[in-house]
Amino acid sequence: MARWTPEGREAPLKPVSVMWTQGVDHVEAQLVVSTVRELLQLVYTIGNQVGLALPTITIRPFGTWYIPSVPEGTPYWGTRWYVDTSFDAARQQVIGARFLDLVRNEPWQKSSPHWDVAVIDWDLVDQARAPADESRQPFVLGMTVPELGTVLSVHRLRGLVRAEHRELALRRLVLQEFGQVLGLPSRSRQSGIELAEGRRFCTNRCVLRPATTVAQLVRVAEQERSDSVMLCEQCRRDVVEMILMRGRSPN
């Protein structure tokens, strides 16, 4: 692979903001933050291997937050507002599309673009639907808008009896969803791609292949751990493409 060096510029990569609801425990929150850092470190390593020096990406773990000067219930006053505004009381689920629309319209997204990672302890569904609509899975573990952010739910992962499996599943979920936030697999890639629920996944053995149930998350996480695999060769090439494109145009 040809080496490419930015002409005195650093590739513009966004900072990452991480928030979580009050019911997310310390172990879960720490694992999410460390896994985001782990994937970004791999991006640095891949870039360095082809001669691309990247700036450090800032990870901002805001946790459960609120703005004291803003009245409770006012738009963007705190973490709980995102959940309350996107919550379907009849289904007792957060609507992922609504949640990510709130993220997209944040005043901070407009003034200082960044990637968002949100972790909730409520059950999650991608879209609002009629009770009789059984054509789609009645829940999702995560929902992502590439280049914007992801919302992840630990609700169903807590049904795993073994702590090791809970941690494996959550780490794998973060890698899959945050990888898609970064734009993996690449939109230009034609091979090794699977379309599921309107999303692009990798078909190779790596963290970008689809896992939509808790059991699938545990199974693929154990396989990837056994094989010491995070990103396949195609996805690693996609990382290089992502870095090159960011070096040519601003986010």
Can you describe what's shown?
With 251 residues, the protein is of the alpha/beta class. It has one domain (16-248): Collagenase (Catalytic Domain) (3-Layer(aba) Sandwich). The chain has 7 helices and 10 strands. The strands form 3 sheets. A 5-stranded mixed sheet has the order 2-1-5-8-7, with helices on both faces. Strand 7 and strand 8 form a beta hairpin. The longest helix is centred in the first third of the chain and has 24 residues, at 26-49. It is globular and about 50 Å long. The model is unreliable at 1-11 (pLDDT under 50).
Compile the SSE list and pairings.
Elements lengths: L15 E5 L5 H24 L9 E5 L15 H8 E2 L4 E3 H9 L2 H5 L3 E6 L2 E3 L16 E4 L3 E5 L9 H19 L11 E4 L2 E4 L11 H14 L5 H16 L3
Parallel strand pairs: 1-2, 1-5, 4-6, 5-8
Antiparallel strand pairs: 3-4, 7-8, 9-10
Helix pairs in contact: 1-5, 2-3, 5-6
Order of helices and strands: EHEHEEHHEEEEHEEHH
Query: Uncertain runs with pLDDT below 50, 5 residues or more?
Result: 1-11
> What is the number of strand segments?
10
Multimer state? single chain
Averaged pLDDT, please?
90
The name of the CATH superfamily reads Collagenase (Catalytic Domain)
Rg over CA atoms, rounded to whole Å, is: 18 Å
Q: Note the overall shape.
A: globular
Question: Strand content of the residues, in percent?
Answer: 15-25%
Can you tag this structure with a few keywords?
single chain, alpha/beta, Collagenase (Catalytic Domain), three-stranded mixed β-sheet, 251 residues, 7 helices, five-stranded mixed β-sheet
